């Protein structure tokens, strides 16, 4: 029986909670934690191991070095920090420098698995991890708008009093300010969102969809204002993606995927729904967009393209 192995590079607030979420959900059998601060990685591994007696799944957690990740099935990249200026794009130079320092080494050592990228700005960093690794695009996936889509379902749930698991809706585009809510094809209780909201206007009121979209996009900064980081939601987002791969679930989730003509764009990674399975990204789901969504998605793609060009100088 094959042991499912995951390595996490960067175990600060985000990486450590990715580890915890995977342990709690039994997503993998072995976890190796790597950080530039070796004592932090060691301490996080010990702290995580202290939970095992309370859980239904046994996971071996240890700290290690980049060279210990060669036989991993999945490597999660979660280096870097969220900036206080409310613009993930301003993290680009530092993030590119960090991934350049270890991705080529990992590939040279013989890693043959799948990269899952969280480091911001995640769409652009995912693009460069793929370039640095030379891996097929299906084996380099960013968390993208996976967390934003969960926030959209949360906001709609709070507004309509419908369980978020009965809501199907995605945020598209950049994991950042230019993301767009796909209201036109989403559903609530199996009904189109726009129809459901209109039918229930007498109980939930007339909603401002642009305001709801803005609330989702600003979700991270509302959290950051009180604790200077986000960690729980992205931890579960990462674990969900990892489980999709290990269990070959072939479930549709939002992630940062490489466009090759889908949505009339190509050559960039950006947040879209996709089918994820044992080989990574299988198929991008191309949703029909209304005029508002097409315009905003186009703008988001153009922003990503411009920053990809900018990063070539780093």
Would you tell me the overall average pLDDT? Answer: 95
Q: What is the total tally of β strands?
A: 14
What is the CATH architecture assignment of the largest domain? Alpha-Beta Complex
CATH homologous superfamily grouping of the largest domain: Lactate dehydrogenase/glycoside hydrolase, family 4, C-terminal
**Count of spatially separate domains:** 2
- CATH top level assignment of the largest domain: Alpha Beta
What coarse outline follows from CA principal-axis ratios?
globular
Uncertain segments are none
Strand content: 15-25%
Describe the structure.
With 314 residues, the protein is of the alpha/beta class. The strands form 4 sheets. A 6-stranded parallel β-sheet has the order 3-2-1-4-5-6, with helices on both faces. It has a 3-stranded antiparallel β-sheet with strand order 7-10-11. A 3-stranded antiparallel β-sheet has the order 12-13-14. It has helices spanning 13-25, 38-49, 92-108, 122-133, 146-160, 193-199, 201-204, 209-217, 219-227, 232-246, 291-311, and strands at 5-9, 30-34, 60-63, 74-77, 114-117, 140-142, 167-168, 171-172, 180-181, 187-188, 191-192, 251-260, 266-277, 280-284. Helix 1 (13-25) crosses helix 10 and helix 3 (92-108) packs parallel to helix 4 (122-133). Helix content is 43%, strand content 20%. The chain folds into 2 domains: 5-142, 3-Layer(aba) Sandwich (Rossmann fold), CATH 3.40.50.720; 146-311, L-2-Hydroxyisocaproate Dehydrogenase, Chain A, domain 2. The protein contains 11 helices and 14 strands.
């Amino acid at each position: 029986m094959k042991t499912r192995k995951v390595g996490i590079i960067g175990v600060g607030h985000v990486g450590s909670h990715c580890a915890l979420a995977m342990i709690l959900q039994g997503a993998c059998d072995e976890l190796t934690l790597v950080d530039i601060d070796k004592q932090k990685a060691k301490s996080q591994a010990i702290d995580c191991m202290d939970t095992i007696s309370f859980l239904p799944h046994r996971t071996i957690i240890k700290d290690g070095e980049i060279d210990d990740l060669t036989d991993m099935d999945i490597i999660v990249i979660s280096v870097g920090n969220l900036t206080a200026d409310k613009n993930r794009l301003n993290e680009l130079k530092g993030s590119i420098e960090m991934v350049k320092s270890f991705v080529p080494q990992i590939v040279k050592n013989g890693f043959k698995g799948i990269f899952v990228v969280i480091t911001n700005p995640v769409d652009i960093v995912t693009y460069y991890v793929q370039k640095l690794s030379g891996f097929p695009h299906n084996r380099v996936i960013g968390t993208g708008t996976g967390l934003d889509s969960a926030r959209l379902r949360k906001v709609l749930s709070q507004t309509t009093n419908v369980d978020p698991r009965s809501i199907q809706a995605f945020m598209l585009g950049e994991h950042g300010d230019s993301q767009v809510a796909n209201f036109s094809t989403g559903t609530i209780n199996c009904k189109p969102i726009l129809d459901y909201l209109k039918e229930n206007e007498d109980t939930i009121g007339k909603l401002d969809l642009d305001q709801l979209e803005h609330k989702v996009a600003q979700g991270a900064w509302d959290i950051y204002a009180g604790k200077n980081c986000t960690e729980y939601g992205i931890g579960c987002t990462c674990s969900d993606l990892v489980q999709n791969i290990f269990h070959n679930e072939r479930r549709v989730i939002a992630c940062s995927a490489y466009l090759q003509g889908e949505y009339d764009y190509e050559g960039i990674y950006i947040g879209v729904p996709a089918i994820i399975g044992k080989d990574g990204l299988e198929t991008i789901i191309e949703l029909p967009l209304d005029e508002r969504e097409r315009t905003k998605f186009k703008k988001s793609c153009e922003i990503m393209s411009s920053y990809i060009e900018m990063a070539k100088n780093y």
